[in-house]
From TrEMBL:
The lineage of its organism: Bacteria, Bacillati, Actinomycetota, Actinomycetes, Mycobacteriales. Belongs to the EamA transporter family. Its main location: membrane. It is a multi-pass membrane protein. Residues 301-320 are annotated as: Disordered. SUPFAM superfamilies: Multidrug resistance efflux transporter EmrE. PANTHER family: EAMA DOMAIN-CONTAINING PROTEIN, INNER MEMBRANE TRANSPORTER. This is EamA domain-containing protein. Residues 304-313 have a biased composition (Basic and acidic residues). The chain crosses the membrane at residues 12-32, 44-64, 76-101, 113-130, 137-156, 162-181, 193-217, 223-246, 253-272, 278-296. Keywords: Membrane, Transmembrane, Transmembrane helix. Residues 19-150, 163-297 form the EamA domain. It holds the Pfam family EamA. It is found in: Membrane.
Length: 320
């Protein structure tokens, strides 16, 4: 049985990281709600990524002083800047913007929730990977679970302009594009370095936007800084960081299937922290999403039996 460096079976290590990833990624909606009452979207996003960029910049500096860093080509650095801009700035700003326009969080989660189907459909043409029949059934069940969870909430978004519904679709497309672009990038020196580059790119983008919009000054409200800490530790380091780690360990289809769990788990967060209703539809959707995630990952062939195109893509981006 394959084991990790600390003696834990690799399968269980991946399962534990997947569970933490789902919880942390779902926490982003709660963090956004924490900061929404204290500052504008741009202010929250600007200071979130500034804090993360400073912390990661310090970590990278210490790594460089202690053991040096691998040489990075201009092409590789440019690719990582684009990936960071798409997967962080592009994704987060569209989600926040859509909600500000009147699209409910449930509808936004519903649109984001079909991401695994998009990834599975494109994995073959772009990576040469194979999505098996059982995995397709699991993906469809997961999509149905997302619809069940968010259907009633979607009906409450009638006040939003028609074009507002395209905004979260753009965010989903940005994250999908970043995912596939990352699979084509060779020789990543370190996950910490990659995350620092991504967050640095987003920090620059949101700082420029905040300054131009005149909303760069942070409020003194304690709720705002609580939201920044929440988004920094849970959503960025926990959610975003584990996304790329799991992408290398499990493959594109398996990792993106975990996105089916985000809407129901977010509903659990909302119920626990804000007393939001948790009805039978949410419970049913949670069961369907969990079942879909199990089916897709169980249906995936072992690493040595996977499609050569997928294996090549995984090898190209494996951590040193």
């Amino acid at each position: 049985m394959q084991t990790s460096q600390i003696g834990i079976p690799a399968r269980w290590a991946t399962f534990a990281m997947s569970a933490v990833f789902v919880i942390c990624w779902s926490s982003g909606f709660i963090g956004a709600k924490l900061g929404a009452g204290a500052a504008s979207v741009l202010t929250v996003l600007m200071w979130r990524f500034l804090v993360v960029a400073v912390v990661l910049g310090g970590v990278v500096y210490l790594l460089w002083r202690r053991r040096g860093l691998a040489t990075m080509s201009a092409r590789w650095l440019g690719s990582q800047l684009v990936i960071g801009a798409l997967s962080q700035a592009g994704y987060t700003v569209t989600v926040y913007w859509a909600i500000a326009l009147g699209v409910s969080t449930g509808t936004t989660a519903l649109i984001d929730g079909v991401q695994p189907l998009v990834v599975a459909a494109l994995a073959g043409p772009l990576l040469g990977a194979v999505t098996h029949r059982r995995q397709w059934w699991g993906l469809l069940v997961g999509a149905a679970g997302v619809v069940v969870v968010t259907w009633s909430d979607a009906a409450s978004s009638a006040g939003a302009p028609w074009w507002a519904y395209l905004v979260p679709l753009l965010g989903m497309a940005a994250l999908v594009a970043a995912t596939f672009l990352e699979r084509r990038v060779d020789d990543s020196p370190s996950p910490v370095v990659v995350l620092a580059i991504h967050c640095g790119a987003s920090a620059v983008i949101f700082t420029v936007a905040g300054l131009l919009a005149g909303v760069a000054m942070p409020p003194a409200d304690g709720a705002f800084w609580l939201a920044i800490v929440w988004l920094t530790v849970l959503s960025t380091f926990g959610g975003y960081g584990l996304y790329w780690v799991l992408l290398r360990r499990s493959g594109v289809t398996s990792v993106n299937t975990l996105m089916f769990l985000m809407p129901p788990v977010t509903a659990v967060w909302g119920t626990a922290m804000y007393g939001e209703p948790f009805g039978w539809a949410t419970a049913l959707g949670l069961v369907m999403a969990c079942g879909a995630t199990w089916v897709v990952n169980r249906a995936a062939p072992p690493p040595e039996a996977r499609d050569p195109g997928e294996a090549e893509a995984r090898t190209a981006t494996a951590a040193p």
